[in-house]
Write a structure and sequence with these properties.
alpha+beta, 168 residues, Immunoglobulin-like, 3-stranded antiparallel sheet, 27% strand, binds calcium ion
Length: 168
């Protein structure tokens, strides 16, 4: 009788996509369609922030082991990377500039998580950052206030010569 020993190596396939936290309360206009929705990340940042200020930490999970579950993060669209950056390992989104709410009041973008599988799988979540106001503007009179001031200003100017004349 011959004994054959077989070694079976179970190779982990990249069969799971990364997952961002999903909304447990499913909202759908059609009752029969029940699909979990990825939570949009809603956050805020006060204007005049220091460069490097942390805006959000956005992380996903992946049920695969090893490289198949190893996630890397990036931002989309590419245009947003002029304003913000994401740490590819931790998912920490930080500001690359000091925001001015009078110029930019809302920044919206996606964070994409991609795993390290040979055929990569991805997940996306939406982030919206409201830039909140600080009292950093010089007080200017409103156009209406300037209009009401004008008559009195011209009155002073035209009264001046007559004052001088009467003193002569
Ligand atoms: Ca995976
Ligand atoms: Ca400002
Ligand atoms: Ca302001």
């Amino acid at each position: 009788m011959t004994t054959v020993t077989l070694s079976i190596v179970v190779v982990d396939e990249n069969d799971h996509a990364p997952e961002f936290p999903v909304n447990p309360v499913v909202t759908s206009s059609r009752r029969d369609v029940i699909r979990p929705r990825v939570f949009p990340v809603v956050t805020s940042l006060a204007e005049n922030n220091p460069v490097g200020a942390v805006v959000a930490v956005v992380t996903a999970t992946d049920r695969d082991r090893g490289i198949n579950g190893h996630l890397t993060y990036w931002l989309r669209p590419a245009g947003v990377t002029g304003m913000l950056s994401v740490d590819p390992v931790t998912g920490t989104v930080s500001a690359k500039m000091s925001f001015d709410r009078e110029q930019t009041s809302l920044v919206e973008f996606d964070v994409v998580a991609v795993d390290g599988g040979r055929t990569t799988r991805t997940a996306t979540t939406h982030v919206s950052v409201t830039i909140t106001d600080q009292d950093d503007e010089v007080l200017m009179p409103s156009p209406a206030a300037v209009l009401t001031l004008l008559p009195s200003l011209s009155l002073i100017r035209y009264q001046m010569p007559s004052l001088y004349t009467s003193n002569l």
